[in-house]
Specification:
With 417 residues, this protein is of the alpha/beta class. It has helices at 33-50, 72-82, 98-118, 141-146, 155-167, 172-192, 259-268, 279-286, 308-319, 339-352, 373-394; strands spanning 15-18, 60-61, 85-90, 129-130, 219-225, 273-278, 296-300, 325-328.
């Protein structure tokens, strides 16, 4: 999808309005979601005027009116994969909705992928709107990171949100102004960003939420074992490396930035605070004995495996079961090496990760499973999920504070109480 064109393609919506459905109050004739539909219709009308979209084109998508017989999750996923701009409608209810969190996560994958291919854009394709103002403490990290200035659409809008402006009749003009300015921002974002069609997720209910959940650990480790330009073995091209292991970019020239940066963004999109590290420098912390501190994804450059220091570290990783450390071995499918050298590297990898063949030993990406950037994003989801599951199974638990209390005893039948 070209960012310098107003034509999003046949059947592709310009924007996707994501909102949390409000339960209907019996006293309301139209129901609360009718006001969201009014906002949506107003945005569509403005966007059609502000762009060269043809008559009959879909300016937006709202999850109402799905055709009978159609799996709504499929249609939802297809529209998220094809829209140009994602508009989350903030409310306290929105950020506790798993469905809304999945919608945000699915769209964010496209933005992260674009950033890796072409570099960071001044505009974000996520343009938030206020339905009801939300306290900063209620926002998940992905929303805080946007740093969006809602007051740009009007002071009354920032104070009341669209719901308040709708319900307070004396703020009708402020409502119309805010809708118009939001439409302008949507068009500006859509024209500035060159978006390709994204992944259509058929197992949509299994996707992670960008808002996380109350039980998941707050922090996550992304750590790297890789070469740098100063210590490359014979036959290894320097194009994939930088001055430090953290600059390793196995998907060069498709990717414009390091794999550690890309992986960190993908994990942050699941509402974790991410710690990025060079494994050789942080091995004592990550390989600490006892219960895990946090779940980990280890990105392993197989060209580093013939280093004595790396051999020692991999032995330490194998000697104790640490299944909360998921291991991924990315490699580019077009890597120009001889079949003999490729087999040597495969043998080194199998030897270093032999302990990972046992059930319950932790995630290890299969051979050639991460040979493209697209495949890496999909495989990382599995690696993160397994690291978190094992972390939760092995993490230290703490009893509640306070004195212990004996459980109550029930009287025997027929006894006096």
């Amino acid at each position: 999808m070209r960012g310098d064109s107003d034509d999003p393609g046949e059947g592709w919506p310009y924007f996707f309005l994501s909102y949390a459905h409000t339960p209907r109050n019996d006293s309301e004739i139209a129901g609360p979601n009718a006001w969201v539909k009014k906002l949506y219709d107003g945005l569509c009308a403005h966007i059609l005027e502000m762009t060269s979209l043809p008559v009959g084109a879909r300016a937006g998508f709202l999850d109402q009116g799905i055709a009978l017989g159609t799996r709504w999750t499929d249609e939802l996923s297809e529209n998220l994969a094809r829209c140009q701009v994602f508009v989350p409608l903030y409310s306290p209810r929105y950020f506790i909705s798993e469905q809304c969190g999945r919608e945000w996560w699915a769209f964010s994958q496209r933005e992260i992928y674009r950033r890796t291919l072409r570099g960071k854009s001044r505009e974000s394709a996520i343009v938030p709107a206020l339905w009801v103002p939300v306290e900063l403490a209620q926002l998940p990290q992905v929303a805080k990171d946007l740093q969006f200035q809602h007051a740009d659409f009007g002071e009354d809008y920032a104070a009341e949100g669209f719901y308040g402006l709708t319900k307070l009749s004396y703020l009708k003009d402020q409502y119309e102004l805010a809708v118009y300015r939001l439409a302008q921002r949507i068009v500006r974002a859509g024209q500035a960003i060159d978006f390709q069609e994204g992944q259509v997720y058929r197992q949509y209910e299994s996707l992670p939420s960008a808002f996380g959940d109350s039980a998941h650990p707050p922090e996550f480790d992304v750590t790297v074992i890789a070469r740098s330009r100063s210590d490359l073995p014979p036959g290894r091209a320097a194009d994939y490396y930088g001055d430090t292991p953290l600059e390793w970019n196995p998907y060069h020239p498709v990717s414009t930035r390091s794999l550690a940066e890309h992986a960190a963004d993908l994990v942050r999109a699941m509402n974790y605070r991410v710690i990025v590290s060079d494994f050789e420098n942080e091995s004592n912390r990550i390989l600490t004995e006892g219960p895990p501190i946090r779940p980990v994804v280890l990105l392993l450059d197989r060209w580093a495996l013939n280093s004595p220091r790396v051999t020692e570290l991999m032995a330490r990783l194998a000697e104790r079961r640490r299944p909360w450390i998921s291991v991924m071995v990315p490699r580019h499918q077009d890597e120009a090496i001889s079949p003999e050298r490729d087999q040597q590297l495969r043998d080194l990898t199998d030897q270093a990760l032999a302990a990972r063949q046992m059930v319950g030993s932790g995630h290890r990406s299969p051979d050639d499973a991460v040979s493209t950037l697209d495949a890496f994003q999909l495989e990382l989801q599995k690696a993160v999920r397994q690291a978190v599951n094992y972390y939760e199974a092995h993490a230290r638990t703490y009893p509640p504070k306070g004195p212990s209390v004996d459980p109550p005893r029930l009287p025997r039948p027929g006894s006096k109480t």
